[in-house]
């Protein structure tokens, strides 16, 4: 039986732990602003087109730097005067070496689609954009191993390997803008982690430039390599705090011969768990995604034109929806398995679903996916989003969404008072809930109602405050809810080894 919202046990974070973490960061290093002299030096490394600066003589206007200074959700804003766009690893090395000597803080930036304020400056740090490092270095079609510059857009890599009958192991709604270096640096999860696993498994190697300019060549294409500590793992999910990832070697799975998807409408969230069990059992090796959106998320996706709305009788009485995708080797076999599953589900004495809508062609396949992938876009069009990306037991998904809504109601903040919606969606197969609160504006009273409440709930469930988006600037204070003191202390020590002056993305991940 599911616990109700009121039964969630909330423990306060021990005061000692909070104090210790603050103490560790109580002496923030002082950084220098970029000066005209620095620009003169960068001009010896980069062509004029690769230097955007508002410092006189300006090569860019303040509005041209806006996109580099503002994050995707419109919550974090920096005041950087300078963006550098190197083309080669050697140029990155020379830039970092100079910044390190001059105590200039650096924010590596990929597609700037990150959702935790990690990719934009907090003050006037220099932005190092990887956008011009966008070449595929090699692809081995037999082994399926791709080596690419960090600035390659995820979608362009998907397109690159497609004619070789391979796919990228990671897929996410931001694929048209995010870069592989950004994906690796955030350890992005995405829509098919259930099938292809995390980047900690599929990334075989990285090339990284350390703050002092050292080029760390970990760009192996070996599947097996047990030669001591696996250093590359430290950069997967480091969010630009240890160095700049300049290239990635990654294992691409063979493309499935056939993919199908279906949206299932459920009368109650309580049915999601038994449904997941049944779907896994029935589809076994061909299951490639099991994604969840609640009714509010569905309504917002439809309202903002993400995918085609289902018929009214298909959504009637539905509390939530699950998107199931299959990817396999033989179309008839997979279709038969999926239809059998639907038949079983609908003919059960107590059906877990009200109805299922099966895509009949590629356009419908994309449209059903858009209802799920488009929730992020829809939420951002609807208002200002407080985004919580948490790992918790699947059984608690709904109670956490409902509990949050109830708390905001009790605080008098719901609906006509600032908060418009509380919704849940995410990657059921990975135990990852995206809890979003959509408001008219970012307001301190909403923030105070949500935090530390949500983090305490996560801690009480032994969950994670960041399942896949990372810590960035948004959750540095929340790290102790998911990591113990010994782990955080070690993280500070590791940071010091790689970045003794602390110039790499200061204020992100660690306070
Ligand atoms: P950025 O946003 O530019 O940077 C993210 C972080 O990585 C920053 O800390 C930055 O400093 C660092 N960084 C970037 N490039 C480098 C580099 N080369 N070297 C060192 N550090 C670097 N995330 C998921 O996990 N799963 C999802 O399903 C998902 N869906 C999304 C859908 C939408 C519509 C959007 C807008 C975002 C989504 N995200 C998702 C969040 C985001 O993490 C990913 O979009 C992506 O991995 C970020 O890549 P990026 O190139 O945009 O990186
Ligand atoms: C998703 O799963 O859609 C992404 O992680 C983005 C989001 O949380 O909105
Ligand atoms: Zn996600």
Largest sheet: 7 strands, antiparallel
**Termini separation:** 40 Å
Helix segment tally: 19
CATH class of the largest domain: Alpha Beta
Q: Which fold name corresponds to the CATH topology of the largest domain?
A: Alpha-Beta Plaits
Adjacency order of strands in the biggest sheet = 13-10-12-11-15-16-14
CATH architecture of the largest domain: 2-Layer Sandwich
What is the gyration radius calculated from CA atoms?
23 Å
Shape: globular
Low-confidence stretches: 1-28
**What bound compounds does this protein have?**
flavin-adenine dinucleotide, D-malate, zinc ion
Cofactor: FAD
Protein name: FAD-binding domain-containing protein
Pfam family, one: FAD_binding_4
Family: Belongs to the FAD-binding oxidoreductase/transferase type 4 family.
């Amino acid at each position: 039986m599911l616990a109700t919202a009121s039964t969630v046990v909330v423990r306060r974070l021990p005061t000692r732990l909070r104090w210790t973490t603050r103490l560790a960061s109580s002496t923030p290093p002082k950084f220098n602003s970029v000066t005209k002299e620095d620009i003169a030096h960068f001009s010896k490394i980069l062509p004029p087109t690769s230097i955007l600066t508002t410092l006189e003589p300006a090569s860019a206007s303040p509005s041209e730097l806006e996109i580099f200074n503002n994050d995707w959700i419109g919550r974090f804003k920096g005041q950087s005067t300078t963006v550098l766009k190197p083309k080669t690893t050697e140029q990155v090395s020379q830039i970092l070496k100079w910044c390190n000597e001059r105590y200039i803080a650096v924010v590596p930036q990929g597609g700037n689609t990150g959702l935790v304020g990690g990719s934009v400056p907090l003050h006037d740090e220099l932005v190092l954009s990887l956008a011009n490092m966008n070449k595929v270095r090699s692809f081995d079609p037999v082994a399926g191993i791709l080596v690419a510059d960090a600035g390659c857009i995820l979608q362009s890599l998907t397109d690159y390997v497609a004619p070789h009958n391979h796919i990228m192991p990671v897929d996410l709604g931001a694929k048209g803008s995010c870069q592989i270096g950004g994906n690796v640096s955030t350890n992005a999860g995405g829509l098919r982690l259930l099938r292809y696993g995390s980047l900690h498994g599929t990334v075989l190697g990285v090339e990284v430039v350390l703050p002092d300019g050292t080029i760390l060549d970990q760009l192996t294409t070996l599947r097996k390599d047990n030669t001591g500590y696996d250093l590359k793992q430290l950069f997967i999910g480091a969010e630009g705090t240890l160095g700049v990832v300049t290239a990635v070697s990654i294992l691409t799975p063979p493309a499935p011969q056939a993919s199908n998807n279906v949206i299932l409408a459920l009368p109650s969230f309580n049915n999601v768990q038994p449904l997941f069990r049944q779907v896994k059992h029935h589809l076994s090796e061909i299951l490639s995604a099991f994604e969840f959106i609640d009714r509010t998320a569905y309504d917002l996706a439809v309202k903002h034109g993400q995918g085609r709305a289902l018929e009214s009788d298909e959504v009637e009485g539905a509390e939530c929806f699950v998107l199931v995708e299959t990817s396999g080797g033989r179309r008839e076999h997979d279709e038969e398995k999926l239809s059998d599953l639907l038949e079983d589900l609908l003919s059960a004495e107590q059906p877990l679903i009200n109805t299922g809508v099966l895509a009949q062609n590629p356009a419908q396949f994309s449209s059903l996916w858009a209802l799920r992938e488009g929730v992020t876009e829809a939420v951002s069009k609807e208002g200002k989003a407080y985004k919580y990306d948490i790992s918790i037991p699947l059984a608690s998904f709904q109670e956490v969404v409902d509990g949050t809504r109830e708390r905001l109601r009790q605080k008098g903040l719901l609906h006509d008072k600032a908060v418009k919606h509380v919704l849940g969606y995410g990657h059921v197969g990975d135990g990852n809930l995206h809890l979003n609160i959509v408001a008219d504006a970012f307001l301190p009273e909403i923030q105070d109602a949500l935090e530390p409440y949500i983090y305490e709930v996560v801690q009480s469930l032994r969950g994670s405050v960041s399942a896949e988006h990372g810590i960035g600037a948004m959750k540095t204070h929340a790290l102790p809810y998911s990591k113990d003191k010994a782990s955080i202390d070690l993280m500070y020590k590791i940071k010091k080894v790689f970045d003794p002056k602390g110039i790499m993305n200061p204020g992100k991940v660690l306070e």
